[in-house]
Amino acid sequence: MKILLTGATGYIAKRLLPVLVRTGHEVVCCVRDNRRFHAIGGVVDNCSAIEVDFLKREELNIIPEDIDVAYYLIHSMTGNVTDFDVLEAEAATNFRNRMNETGVKQVIYLSGIVNEAVLSKHLESRRQVEKILAEGNYHLTTLRAGIIVGSGSASFEIIRDLVEKLPIMIGPKWLQTRSQPIAVRNVIQFLEGVLLNPITFDQSFDIGGPEILTYKEMLLQFAKIRRLRRVIYTIPIMTPRLSSYWLFFVTSTSYKLAVNLVDSMKVEVICKTNDLHKRLGIELITYEDAVKLAFDTIAQHHVLSRWTDAMSSEILKKGLSLRIEVPVFGCLKDNRQRQIKDENQTIKRIWSLGGETGWLYANWLWDLRGMMDKLVGGVGIRRGRRDPEELEVGDTLDFWRVIDASKERKRLLLYAEMKVPGEAWLEFKIENGILYQTATLRPRGLWGRTYWFSVFPFHGIVFNGLIKKLTQ
Q1: Residue 307 lies in a domain
Q2: Residue 26 shares a structural domain with residue 116
Q3: Do 284 and 337 belong together in one domain?
Q4: Which stretches of 134-280 are DSSP H helices?
């Protein structure tokens, strides 16, 4: 059958796509930038990509009319604190109206658990989207999940940051809030299991794991699995703002997302009882086993997607292609070149930069720059990387975003997502046995130029040391 997959570069969709293709379906992926399509789970057969911005109604006309089923996996929480609910409602309305013009039989929507009387803005937005989608001329199946646990998921990475970095935690009272975490493998099984399944038409189902745990219990279980001794105290005086800063500075989340997460973490997300997992033949995975499976996936370098790679950013909204050509005029550059002794080894080293490997030389200066970025509201350096050896277009790499990554053309281009007064690129390119390493800043006004010349002395240390290590 022909399936439309929206949010195709998102955390869940990148894991669902290989499953759909393996079972013989033809999948049409909706992406904001076609350059990222080749990276989706490594799958290119029996699927295609179309560029669609669901906030631009006219662009939805490109969606084929012979769609059988559509997955709606779009949300905007990571991009904006104030009006993401408005954007989500607008995108859902445009999607519903376009689906009404096609032959789609079923729409499958992954939402959040919304059983409390008072909901966070995030969960209220999810419920509103469900209402909008339910008005379409098709069968709607809604799966409502809470905390999703898997390699690269937001919940997993945030808990990992807290547990591995803080031997003693003094946290807010919402650590006592209960939730029902679910393994990402189970989420994918549910999404596949309801596909054109009549027993799920025009219904919503809460999906969760077999346990109800507080956030504190999840942290302590995580620590036990990692064989770490951790002590957690909760205090009632920590305000939502302080809680947001607590998450922002300790974990890899952005401040915007931290605000929305704290707002949601005050609400219990516990499933209403149903037997959908039994009817679909799904064995629910415990929280402990979900964490262990996540670390097994990380150890085997099989992480298909990470929430930080899918996280909304200005560069992803505007399109990667706008940054692939490094500007020349009006720019300040640090150019270095060096003869290569072993081309394959140099490429391997370039592709392994960042994350746990670090930047090969003067890592403390990179860490310092990341800490300074975090202090002024930037992403910092904690995002790391999805895979220790491979890079794909659109990946996050510490405080960079991968714009071009081609071993065949021997080029890696990174765009800065740290706070800088202007725009910055870092490029590695090999031609005729020579590695060309170029840092470029397109400064914004006088402050941009002042910034460049103030850090220029450190370039001599960092970039000179880096190119030497890469070509040894």
Answers
A1: no
A2: yes
A3: no
A4: 154-165, 184-193, 215-225, 240-250, 255-265, 276-279
